[in-house]
Design brief:
heterodimer, A: 534 residues, mainly alpha, 4-stranded parallel beta sheet, 8 strands, 5% strand, B: 294 residues, Fumarate Reductase Cytochrome B subunit, 12 helices
């Protein structure tokens, strides 16, 4: 147990508050030495520019040190202005209730810590305790509002407000996946993740300091080109054409992606990263929807072909702009409903988070693709042979779809019908652990942050995967499939399996639900998965 | 007469400041959706495994079913048994539940005190050998008062000790939180001291009778101390996180369990429309928040 306290966040020294050291042990075969790479320490050159004084990791590459006394004063002033705005109904109406409840009523009982996979995986480093973050914010706020008086000390507000404390807090907001598992265990129904999220919002919306992969190369890029991948309309259409040709070559049947079809029943929106990194997934959707005879289309308009909305993790303004752009694309096509492909945060952003941001013609029903996929399996129009998926399969529950949206069973019903060796992780469903890529981590790529993500954030999930496949893990001839119906989760699994060399060593694979469905379709002679023998 | 007026003022302060706090949360702008599953308003097995209406394709074409039974039963489990704490931290639950159960019993004790005072005002004598009602009220007052004060004191003292000695909790417990627990402990302990001199709580009942008839409360020594402390605690609670009876309601009903969809043409859509129209132009400072494009 380390002795670190929230007050230590304002230590003026730029030395790291913690070193990672001993982490949670992994099960076999990763319980032997040398099975995982070592963490790269922060370079000295980074220390002058970024905040390495928390844990030596740089998640927010736009959080830069002030270079003069005047800049320091400005930095602190901006932070305090932002703090005021978090508590204002004028500037933070949508989050005021959950945020102020979590801020005001936390009983500091620490129950949330045991639910946090980052805290547990880190070997219980104090700085990653959910309460540590929220208590730091509380201390800073009370120190600011009560300016060192007796009441400030009475409420814990006895902390120096300095650049180091603010920078460390800004970094610490990016040591939480926003998975909300801690909120499930809170005896008062409070959500510590909303505190982390609001700190991120303050840094972005008031101080202009959000990780570049989320902001400049995320939401800003999406609003200017149409996709956070930078794929504009022409590139999107080229990609679709290429995928259509590829399907024909692989399966010997022509499938067409209906683009910008006015008056269609369904507007299907994928995470555009799928087209570039996992084209098998949108391809599988196209095959399934065509064979089922659904009336569907895809949009080529701005944000209409990319369900990504990084705004929900760090910036309300960006989140709203993207959500409304997607609604506009649907309205212009005159579709009856928007269906979200296999992307967790896109599900939540489009269906839940933006639900109270649009009315009238923009208030178009949105739904998950999972119940539709389940109904396709059960409908009988397409014939499936489960034995084609006769290898161990486990299911990862994307937090945004399960815990924050309540879509739990449809994906299981598909796997139970089509995968004879399906097994659950422990725990699963609404009690699942995050993949470790949530809250933007899967796309944040600054300095040594990806290493930290792999060592700490994904560690609990990797442990779960190993445990789910314990019976066959050391048999490399047996493919083992992690069904991860979410693009960001897939990104985390891709990086996890590479980092721990689990595909190369033990033949652990990953992918979505739709691919498993197409792999089981009897109408194709060849397996859909190229890693299966033909 | 000072004590009578004091007690009325403290009760009124508790009610008024609690309502003010609740009003402050109730008047917040409509929150964006931030529900967390399981949501007990979901019907049937979904409530158990944490599913929602989003598990049906075309969910908006189906009648919306909200299980009030599910909501109320979950609320009761949480209020009466502190279910979440029990499931997640049994040891802490034991201490916290002892204190909270004690407070609930003291709530019952207050009701029995009022019933006893009213019974006496109607001319019936409360004692063990008289009418059933009088005997029932007498005994239940004594039992709830004693066990309530004992559990509250015991729970408060143990929580205080736990917070002061646990290596994690000690870091996060503020002076204010120690003070709050000490304050509760002092009120409960002074109540026990009152019981020690008056096993049937007859003097407190006389004080309640005096309050009901707007007469001066006759209290001295330990009873006076107890009433002064209790009144001060009543006034103090709404200003602190001890008012979580308010926060918890909003946390569940306005945040975690609020999954009401904004359907086109619905009453909620009209509220959303007004909420969007009423949004202030006051904003954040980063340049990107000022433009519509990026």
């Amino acid at each position: 147990m380390d002795r670190l306290k929230p007050r230590d966040m304002s230590r003026p020294s730029t030395e790291q508050l913690i070193n990672l050291g001993q982490l949670m042990p992994l099960p076999a075969p990763y319980d032997k030495p040398g099975m995982e790479p070592e963490l790269k320490p922060a370079k000295d050159s980074w220390r002058e520019t970024y905040c390495t004084s928390l844990d030596g990791i740089i998640g927010n590459d736009r959080l830069k040190r002030p270079r003069s006394k005047a800049e320091e004063e400005e930095f602190i002033k901006n932070f305090l202005n932002g703090l005021d705005k978090l508590f204002s109904r004028e500037t933070n109406g949508g989050f005021l209730t959950p945020f102020s409840l979590a801020f005001e009523y936390c009983a500091s009982c620490g129950v949330c810590s045991d639910s946090c996979h980052i805290f547990k995986a880190s070997g219980e480093k104090e700085v990653y305790r959910p309460l540590f973050r929220s208590d730091t914010l509380r201390k800073l706020y009370y120190s600011y509002k009560r300016r060192g008086n007796l009441l400030a000390r009475f409420t814990g507000g006895n902390m120096d407000i300095n650049v180091e404390a603010i920078m460390r807090l800004g970094e610490l907001a990016y040591r939480c996946n926003l998975c909300r598992r801690c909120a499930q265990s809170c005896p008062l129904g409070l959500d510590n993740s909303v505190i982390a999220r609001e700190i991120r919002a303050l840094f972005s919306m008031e101080m202009g300091m959000a990780p570049s992969m989320l902001h400049e190369r995320g939401t800003v890029l999406q609003l200017s080109t149409g996709s956070s991948t930078g794929m504009n309309k022409d590139a999107f259409l080229d990609n679709i054409e290429f995928i259509e040709e590829d399907i024909y070559e692989r399966l010997g049947k022509k499938y067409k992606f209906p683009i910008d079809k006015k008056g269609a029943d369904i507007l299907l929106i994928h995470n555009a990263g799928e087209f570039l990194s996992w084209p098998d997934n949108p391809t599988a959707f196209a095959i399934l929807f065509a064979e089922e005879g659904l009336d569907w289309t895809m949009s080529s308009e701005l944000a209409g072909y990319d369900g990504v909305n990084y705004g929900i993790w760090y910036d309300d303004v960006q989140g709203e702009k993207i959500a409304l752009a997607q609604r506009r694309a649907a309205r212009e096509l005159g579709v009856r409903r928007i269906v979200i492909g296999e992307c967790g945060h896109a599900h939540r952003a489009a269906v839940v988070t933006s639900d109270r941001l649009a009315v009238g013609a923009d208030n178009i029903p949105r739904e998950s693709s999972f119940p539709i996929l389940r109904d396709i399996v059960r409908g009988g129009r397409i014939r499936f042979d489960p034995l084609r998926n006769n290898f161990p399969v486990t299911l990862h529950d994307p937090c945004n779809i399960v815990r924050s949206m309540g879509v739990v069973m449809p994906q299981r019903q598909v796997l139970r019908e089509l995968c004879p060796q399906f097994r659950e992780m422990t725990p699963h469903g609404v009690e699942n652990y995050c993949c470790g890529g949530g809250g933007g981590f899967a796309v944040m790529r600054s300095m040594n942050f990806p290493d930290w993500e792999m060592k700490v954030a994904v560690r609990m999930k990797f442990k779960q995967v190993l445990e789910a496949f314990q019976d066959t893990i050391e048999d490399p001839t047996m493919p083992k499939y992690i069904c991860a119906p979410c693009s960001n989760c897939k990104g985390a699994f891709r990086d996890m399996l590479n980092y721990y060399q689990a595909t190369a060593r033990y033949n652990v694979r990953y992918g979505g639900i739709a691919e498993l469905m197409v792999n089981a379709m009897t109408m194709f002679d060849q397996p859909y998965f190229e890693w299966l023998p033909g | 007469m000072f004590l009578t007026v004091y007690m009325y003022i403290t009760i009124m302060a508790f009610v008024v400041f609690s309502l003010r706090k609740a009003r402050q949360y109730a008047r917040n702008p409509l929150a964006g959706r931030w529900e967390l599953y399981p949501v007990p308003g979901e019907s049937g097995p979904r409530r158990r495994y944490g599913g929602s209406y989003y598990e049906d394709a075309g969910w908006w074409t189906k009648p919306r079913q909200v299980s009030r039974v599910g909501q109320y039963s979950e609320m009761l489990k949480e209020m009466l048994f502190m279910k979440n704490l029990f499931l997640n931290r049994g040891k802490f639950w034991l201490l916290s539940y002892a204190m909270h159960l004690g407070i609930y019993l003291l709530g019952l004790f207050t009701l029995f005190l009022i019933a006893g005072a009213a019974t006496e005002m109607l001319g019936f004598q409360l004692d063990t050998g008289s009418h059933f009602w009088a005997a029932f009220v007498y005994f239940t007052t004594a039992v709830t008062g004693f066990t309530g004060a004992l559990l509250t004191a015991l729970g408060g003292a143990l929580l205080l000790a736990y917070r002061a000695t646990d290596r994690v909790l000690r870091k996060y417990t503020t002076s204010g939180e120690y003070f709050n627990l000490t304050f509760i402990l002092a009120v409960a302990a002074s109540g026990l001291a009152v019981w020690g001199t008056d096993l049937g709580f007859n003097h407190i009942r006389q004080a309640v009778k005096a309050m009901l008839s707007l007469a001066p409360i006759q209290a001295d020594g330990i009873l006076m101390v107890h009433l002064l402390l209790f009144g001060a605690l009543l006034m103090y609670i709404p200003w602190t996180k001890m008012s979580h009876y308010i926060g918890k309601y909003f946390a569940y009903h306005r945040v975690l369990w609020d999954n009401e969809p904004n359907l086109r043409g619905s009453a909620l859509e009209r509220i959303v429309e007004k909420n969007l129209a009423d949004r202030s132009s006051a904003g954040w400072s980063s340049p990107h928040t000022k433009t519509n494009k990026d």
